């Protein structure tokens, strides 16, 4: 490293300082002073360097530990939207039922077709009608009568003593029950039976029959048509199938 006096002398543009420095070094103590200046210069430069380092590189500040960016949770997949099937229309229900019946008609045996008929008829019965069928199942006949106008137009039909004998709950609905049973071909009408002559007057006392006689009467009294009621072959077949 160049001595301090030499560096200063190099700054002289006239070249006088180098000669002065060489002459001064022969003076006692000058060299020692120069070494002291070198040490002071070295310390000053070291301090300056430290200051520059502090300015250029500021001390790091304490920061929170860096958090790893986390991807947001994936949204739950939207549930599959159930396809909404509209309810079948009335026509579609009828078409479906007819198709089912036609398939049975093609594939069912005679016995299966008979069972289908029996089941359908029994499902259509109400309890009082089942009681009437039970009372007729033994082969007994019951008094049956119709009320008509003098001209012959029927006002009330199928009033019968079978209702009381069977113990039905609604005695005044016996004409309706017997009409339904006849329409299903479970009972049949027969001619008047003189053996039942005492039963016809009892039927005439029932409220529906009396009301029908009043409505049917005109200048002449209403006509009373006496008949009998019995179980039909189909009614007996169904009854025996259920026993």
Number of helices: 11
CATH fold-level topology of the largest domain? Translation Initiation Factor IF3
What's the domain count? 2
Largest sheet: 4 strands, antiparallel
The CATH architecture classification of the largest domain is: 2-Layer Sandwich
Determine the fraction of residues in helical runs and give it as a percent range.
40-55%
List the helices and strands and how they pair.
Elements: H1 4-10, H2 16-24, H3 30-56, H4 90-107, H5 110-124, H6 127-136, E1 142-148, E2 154-160, H7 162-166, H8 174-183, E3 187-190, H9 199-204, H10 207-216, E4 223-231, H11 233-241
Antiparallel strand pairs: 1-2, 1-4, 3-4
Helix pairs in contact: 1-2, 6-8
Describe the protein's architecture and organization:
- It is a single chain.
- The longest helix is centred in the first third of the chain and has 27 residues.
- The protein has 243 residues and is of the alpha+beta class.
- The termini are far apart.
- It has two domains: 52 residues, no CATH class; 128 residues, Translation Initiation Factor IF3 (2-Layer Sandwich), CATH 3.30.110.
- Strands 2-1-4-3 form a four-stranded antiparallel sheet.
- Helices cover 52% and strands 11% of the residues.
- Helix 1 runs antiparallel to helix 2 and helix 6 packs across helix 8.
- The mean pLDDT is 82.
- It comes from Patulibacter brassicae.
């Amino acid at each position: 490293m160049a001595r301090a006096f030499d560096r200063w002398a190099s700054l002289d543009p006239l070249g006088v300082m180098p000669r002065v420095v060489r002459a001064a070094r022969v003076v006692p103590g000058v060299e020692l002073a120069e070494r002291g200046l070198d040490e002071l210069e070295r310390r000053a430069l070291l301090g300056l360097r430290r200051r520059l380092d502090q300015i250029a590189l500021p001390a790091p500040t304490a920061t929170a530990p860096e958090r790893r960016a986390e991807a947001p949770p994936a949204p739950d997949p939207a549930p599959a939207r159930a396809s909404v099937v509209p309810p079948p229309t009335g026509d579609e229900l009828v078409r479906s039922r007819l198709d089912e019946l036609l398939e049975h008609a093609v594939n069912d045996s005679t016995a299966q077709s008979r069972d289908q008929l029996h089941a359908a008829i029994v499902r259509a019965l109400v309890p009082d009608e089942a009681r009437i069928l039970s009372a007729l199942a033994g082969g007994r006949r019951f008094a049956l009568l119709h009320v008509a106008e003098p001209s012959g137009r029927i006002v009330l039909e199928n009033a019968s003593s079978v209702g009381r004998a069977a113990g039905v709950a609604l005695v005044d609905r016996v004409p309706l029950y017997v009409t339904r049973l006849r329409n299903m071909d479970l009972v049949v009408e027969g001619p008047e039976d003189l053996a039942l002559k005492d039963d016809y007057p009892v039927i005439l006392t029932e409220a529906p029959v009396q009301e029908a006689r009043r409505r049917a009467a005109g200048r002449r009294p209403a006509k009373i048509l006496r008949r009998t009621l019995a179980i039909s072959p189909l009614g007996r077949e169904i009854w025996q199938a259920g026993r």
